[in-house]
Amino acid sequence: MASVHDSLYFNPMMTNGVVHANVFGIKDWVTPYKIAVLVLLDEMTVSKCISLLEKRRLNKLILPLLQGPDMTLVQLLKTVEDCCPQLAYAVHLRLHLMADGELKDMESFFDVLPSPFNETESEAHKSSVVGLFMRHMVLAYNKLSFSQVYKLYKALQQYYKSYERKAPLVSDATTDADMEQLAPDGLGRKVEKQDLDLPPSEDDVASTEPLSQKQAEYFLAQQAYFLKNDENKALKPAGLQKELNNMLKFNPDFAEAHYLSYLNSMRVQDVFVSTHSLLHYFDRLILSGSDSKSNGDEGYGRSLRYAALNLAALHCRFGHYQQAELALQEAIRIAQESSDHVCLQHCLSWLYLLQQMKGSDSTVLTEHSVKMAVHFSLPYLASLGIQSLVQQSAIRGKNAKKLINALKDTDILHWKHSMSELIDISIAQKTAIWRMYGKSTMALQQAQMLMNMNSLESVNLGVQQNNTEAFTVTLCHLAELHAEQGQFQAASEILKHLKERFPSNSQNAKLWMICEQKIQFDRALNDGKYHMAESLVSVISALCKTEGLYRKALVLKAQNQTSEAYRVLQGLLIYCEKTKCTEMTIRVMLAIAELYWRSSSHGIVLPLLLQTLALSREHHLQKLASETVLHLAFSQLMLGIPEQALNILHMAIEPILAHGAVMDKGRALLLVAKCQVVTSASVPADQRHQALVVAIQNLEEARSYFDKVDCRDRVRDIFYLQARLYHSLGKTLERNKCAMLFRQLNEELPSHGVPLLTRL
């Protein structure tokens, strides 16, 4: 199921997705990159050969160029070339003449620069964004001393030389006519896409000079927005940390940069750097006094209590429960002294979440949190509490009807307050609950609803919608549902989309990783490739220890290592009963029952299966209940009461065919055919003939299901049974065909060593 508390992390930088950043005392100054931008603006103003489409693209490009961090000349020219190749060549040519000329060339550029902008009809008049930028640059340049102007010119030459090193000159044999022909497309140089991916060298001015105030604000706002909405578009963790370290080198008291460093470190689970950055953020926030100015006398205390709350959240993420509890107690104490009910509610939410992580019953705390959140008109926290209560109640087997109604009521609250994130979480919860109950059709419907729903939040900067944990969980359920129906190509496409949207270094990558490994394991086990399944066990164990142990036992059972499999399952059963993991407990008990079949202990297994059936029905787990009925029917068949086995099979066959996996459908029909064959021995000849014909039809349908999941071992068994039945009916041609197919598969596949009639 989806975790419903990832959004409880307090983010003081963001209000409605906007980062409030301030670089203290840093003003705009002239850099080589900004000179290149001024050349671009000048060329845009005087050029008459720019088409309307190119002009539109350039206008969309201007604001990011003005507000973003400095770029290398290779990156800048490539960006402009994508919009207008002729203009990019003109900018390159003017910078080449300026850098290869003398200091007076740069002086004359700034002298003549204002003239194109004096016209009131110009799109870059003095009151526009472009005009203001140009005026700031002219004023900053006029304030420079002669030595500073000389250093700026040397920096410009170095800026252009770094471009020449990355974009080697065209061969000297190229004629001037060829140069003119290449100019609009290649800028006279081979600028490849991989040049943009090169790490900045020591000569790149963009990586060594500090950002201006506007650049820092834009950079932090963009990266924080990407981390929240579309992590794939944010800088890589190492690259972002390098930029933040460069920013903090010039201004160590930049509090918001420390907080972004904390968020970036959480992406890679770096506990040391994330703790260090979080503490530095609140230290700088308190020392700067900015929080006190905006919140009066309470600002200082507010920073302290939210610092403790964020520290508790940090320790919770890393599983440091004792440290998290101490930090929560500190936050609660300070919040009580200040009568901060909002902070106290956040603390209470983390307190019951901490109890859940420790394996304790937190129902009372959660209910109290919901009541207090409603009392103080905090719908977000109230809804999160209800979602958590529903999740706990579903695991503990509470009434399914009440749970779905509770989720329906929370949906009304979400739509009323336009809480898009919680709407996604609610749909993901319903998808997981329906799938846990064994209603795959309803789970598929909920998953498709989330896939086709537009976010209520405004999406800027070209990010994709629904890049949240809830969306990841729903897509993983969707992939597993397709794999269960034998649609492995569709499941592969879904996993491919997950990998593109959530890279391996993102926080939600673990979800699709374990989903992919489970699908591959099931395919390998069904196809009899036990060595491949065994290699996947270690990967699954690294992602989920419980699931890894269960899969290890399945491989051992398939390899006929009964004693070792029983030992692993017994240890896992004790652990699951201790942690109250009912679903895994039932799966383990069914696996133990199959081990008893290997020793022909069908009488001993009945009490275990009846206990499993009662447990699955108590928790409304229809899929596992139907699977348990199949096991009971098989045991009764082995005990010599096929009529009773056939009767109880009718209880399970309908839900299995409606909502079950393809493998379960095939096993159910195979068991029905076996029971029909055995019961036909005690009926008259004409009825026996009809019963065998129906059994053959059921076997044929079961074979089609096994073919979908590439379970050739089961297909081999069906061919054997069909050949025997056709022989009994006197159909020689069909018998020979099935016998030939059985022989082909028997030569390809190794013998499983388990008699056909002693396994389900």
Structure overview:
Keywords: Cell cycle, Cell division, Cytoplasm, Cytoskeleton, Mitosis, Nucleus, Phosphoprotein, Repeat, TPR repeat, Ubl conjugation pathway. It comes from Polypterus senegalus. Residues 183-209 are annotated as: Disordered. Pathway: Protein modification; protein ubiquitination. Helix content is 74%, strand content 1%. It has a two-stranded antiparallel sheet. The chain is elongated, with a radius of gyration of 34 Å. By secondary structure, it is mainly α. Helix 16 (299-317) runs parallel beside helix 18 and helix 35 (685-708) packs antiparallel against helix 36.
List keywords for this structure.
two-stranded antiparallel sheet, 760 residues, repeat, mainly alpha, 37 helices, elongated, single chain, cell cycle
Give the class from helix and strand content and strand pairing: mainly alpha
Could you give the distance between the termini? Answer: 30 Å
Counted beta strands? 2
Helicity level, as a percent range? over 70%
**Outline:** elongated
Pfam families: ANAPC5, Apc5_N
Domain Anaphase-promoting complex subunit: 258-357, 463-495
Pathway: Protein modification; protein ubiquitination
GO biological process, one term: positive regulation of mitotic metaphase/anaphase transition
